[in-house]
Amino acid sequence: MPTASGSAVIAAVYATAGALACWALGWTLWNGLAEPGIALAFWVLIAVGELVGRGPDPATGAGREAAPLGVAGALAYALLGEAGGRPTTHGVPQTVAVVLAAGLVGIVPHVARGRGPALDPLARRVLTVGFAATCFQPLYNTGTLGTWVASGPVYPLFLIGLLALTALCDAVLAAALASARTGWPYGPLLRDALRALPGIGSAICATGVVISLATAVAGLWALPVFCLPLLLTQFAFRRFAAVRATYRQTIASLARSTEIAGYTPHGHARRVAALSRAVGRELGLNAPDLDVLEHAALMHDIGQLSLLDPVPDGATVPLPPAEQRRIALLGGAVVRQTGVPTEVAVIVERQADPYRDQPVTARIVRTVNAYDDLSGESAGPGGALRALERLRLATAQDHDPGVVEALARVLARGGRAV
């Protein structure tokens, strides 16, 4: 659940988006639709983009929230000054109203599946499209834009610059909402959002500009023609996401081999992976590093499969340092045979080294693994607090104080993980 400050941020974003949406709908209903055919065409484009399927979020790179085709269509409508050589007059409120109406169509499948409406992306869409339309429509309709960038390549560059600024605003909103809902630090979330922009974000912005320019010359026939590349890109990203999901499932299955063989307690690898990822995010690691960290945490005990006799309860913390390092090196050798990135094997191999010699990811795995070993069912009531205290007492040699305190903060929030 969001904290009080997080709830305030979400409420502020929703209130702003709601006020803008109500004003846009009221104005449009009062004055009627300008160019109904154009409005209907873009409404269909945006609604189809929402319904085709969720693709990578341009602000985060994740495949959960954004509909790239719908976003591109919405931005193109916000930057539309002409259609087939004739000036358009739809303005800011109608732009927001059409985008809102199409977005409401997009949340119907979520409601039908019982998952509830995805309101965060809709609020972001209303605000960012409203921003782009406000920056463009008044300038274009009054002729001011024509005096600034009358012809040549300057006009497309102006549109690209405006959409780049819009994408930055969307990244700020996305990071703020994610931080408010999860309690994760805002800085790393914003950094991840900005890193994602050159990928699918740039494709969405470029498609929006192309649709706007092409519609100005060729009319509404440009919509299906110039949306096709982005649609194909979206399908390619979805296939890539499916491959990554299968890859992660394979790693998780390998990690369970120690549980099936009776070397580690049930769920140990999964708990260490989830908590390690949460601690890594608390420390500001970016998304690729978090993925590597999670994979290494899932496979951190795989070296125990080479032991003749299982370690009691799978807990390697009580073992002599030399034995811990031997198991870690054996695990790294196994991981290198699985085809995962080398960084994963390095973390597994170095998890038993003195923390000053380790990369931060290996420090996290070492500390979280020790915490899970020390706070297991055999620890009894208060075992979690005692385990954390033991980690703090071992910060001189075995555990990084910064990692231990980050773990403590995560646990204080209920151990929420990604």
What is Rg? 26 Å
Number of helices: 18
Secondary-structure-derived class: mainly alpha
Overall pLDDT score: 83
Query: Level of helix content?
Result: over 70%
Strand-residue proportion: under 5%
N→C terminal distance: 14 Å
DSSP, total strands: 2
Overall shape: it is elongated
Helix/strand order = HHHEEHHHHHHHHHHHHHHH
Q: Largest beta sheet, briefly?
A: 2 strands, antiparallel
Can you list the strand order of the major beta sheet? 1-2
Low-pLDDT runs: 59-65
Could you explain the architecture of this structure?
It is a single chain. The protein is elongated, with a radius of gyration of 26 Å. It has a two-stranded antiparallel sheet. The chain has helices spanning 4-31, 36-52, 68-78, 91-106, 108-112, 119-141, 144-148, 154-182, 186-218, 222-255, 257-260, 268-282, 287-298, 321-336, 342-350, 360-374, 383-393, 401-412, and strands at residues 82-83, 86-87. It starts with a helix and ends in a 6-residue tail after the last helix. It has 18 helices and two strands. Helix 1 crosses helix 6 (119-141) and helix 12 (268-282) runs antiparallel to helix 13 (287-298). The model is unreliable at 59-65 (pLDDT under 50). The chain is mainly α.
